[in-house]
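idk why but the lab printer keeps eating my pages so im just putting this in chat instead. protein + 2-amino-3-ketobutyric acid:
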Amino acid sequence: MAEREVKNIMVIGAVGQIGSELTMALREKYGNDNVVAVGRKTKPSDELRDSGPFEFANCNDKESIENLVKKYDIDTIHHLAAILSGTGEANPELAWKVNMDGLKNVLDIARDYKLARLIVPSSIAVFGPGTPLQNTPQQTILRPNTIYGVTKVAGELLCDYYFEKWGVDVRGMRFPGLISYKTPPGGGTTDYAVAIYYEAVKTGKYECFVEERTTLPMMYMPDAINCHIDLQNADGSKLRYRNAYNVTGFSFDVKTLADSIRKVIPEFEVTYKPDFRQKIADSWPDSIDDTAAKEDWGWTPEYSLDGMTEDMIKNLRIMHEKGEI
Ligand code: AKB
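predcted complex ->
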């Protein structure tokens, strides 16, 4: 089946950690006017609001999204609105509502308006305590014990169902922790790997909410943005695991991360005060096998841990000097 062309794109969740950077990258590639940023409530940055169309809508209000699809003649959606693992445990009802009901609304719209493409990220949260921790295979045990993980497994299956039953060209990757400096993440377990950089630059100290030994797979945001765009443009006939591709950048424990930061900020200090997120982190893989993504659509992350650290600290220092953080 020939792929339909991607022309008019909508990013739902455009004010969030991935969305704020993905929207700008898509505008660069497809033209500012052809990428509609959709936020729910949070005020967008001037850059996001002024460089192209910006609208407020909510994936739990199907009509609000549908109206925008019609207004802008949308053919492709990147659906990023989600409640992450930490917030999900505090409010399981909300996690279900946004991650499942919201997703179903967007899938229905993709089917009814015959969209060319829908991209829905999944997460390493689909794995659970029974999953092999090291080099976690593409095909393995999916028995998560967080509501976030439950919604991500169910979401992958729902996306597969819409593809099988109605031919909706929906695709997704299982993101590890994502590290970036432009927009902080909110409510995730892997957020410590972002906060540690902010605090290293701002105060030279960080109190970490998971133990020093905690090892998780991670990825730097420029690689995650390429991952979105490359999967969107991949040859659909080659996608063996279309809604569930394992992807990773690198894995490290908190000590290794702190040591990487100390190469740039030698006096940096970390203390540890684990909270409820330790259990979540312990239920997720230490490292991920992403061979299938490499084979099927040429996934290739570029950043190393030290390369990311240098870039993060350079940019956070500029933001700190300007009083932005
Ligand atoms: C979280 O920690 O909840 C997210 C994720 C790994 O999906 N960053």
